[in-house]
Task: structure prediction
Amino acid sequence: MGLGAGKSSGLAGFAVEILDVKKSFGKFQALDGVSFNVEQGEFFALLGPNGAGKTTLISALAGLSKPDSGSLKVMGFDVRTQYKQARQVLGIVPQEIVFDPFFSVREILRMQSGYFGIRNNDAWINELLEKLSLTDKADKNMRALSGGMKRRVLVAQALVHKPPVIVLDEPTAGVDVELRQTLWAFVRQLNQQGHTILLTTHYLEEAQQLCSRLCMMKQGKVVALDTTANLLAGFSERVLRVALKGNATLPASLAPRRMKSDSIWHYFSISAYQEVEDILALLRTNEIGIEKLEVTEPELEDVFLKIMKKA
Ligand code: ADP
Ligand code: MG
Result:
């Protein structure tokens, strides 16, 4: 029964605890009883189609919007009753870019440090600028920066107080490849240093590469919550694709089994390897040779689409 803040934020606790959070906008239920925990040190993904409620949940976690019911904690601190402590241990990179255009990058980062009561933060600010390749932009006004550069400043701003828990809401939406790589290298490093990372992204291959566990949301509800490895392993469908010698036409008996074809490949969804043998046998019966053949393992994208369809 956490009395003192120190106790309830003990090292053994969760980084993020979300319990039965509900939030509606008028008649529209944006969050419909969301619950999940994130362990300290995890690299965790929050996924879901547009409108699933991810940003609404993150803004409740940041204490920026008040849920109708349920509770949210960061490092054991309740975001409502212990707002100040919860805010101190959390760094949020928001989805929307909003800045005062008249301040320079360095001024923004100094003000944000001041907001957290940190003076003489220049050594860390310089390191952040360096890590995010912003050093030569430090004295430029925000309005002079490109969208990608502004997003780097958002990341730096979220990190001025070295928060143990870092939330990134679609940080790579509309961002060039170079920034994506810089950003991921940096975030991975922060995670290795012990920071907990909660990431929302539309790029499922990023989530698959980076995140050890994930939560999928749809229409304000959690529809999947598991490790990335389990979700991929539990997905039995693989894709067989074959290119036929002389670009032969697919025999009529195989056409109904085919998912799709392009100018080179014919694709088949298979749930057991026996099906590969069946397809090859049918080709041989029809005296059609094989130019190339591949069986691809499922991607997170496949798992995601299947879960979203089912939910
Ligand atoms: P996501 O981040 O998963 O794309 P959001 O959390 O931004 O989804 O939005 C979830 C749903 O809630 C959307 O349908 C959105 O239109 C609605 N919504 C979000 N904020 C508001 C608001 N302030 N007023 C009314 N509806 C909102
Ligand atoms: Mg969003």
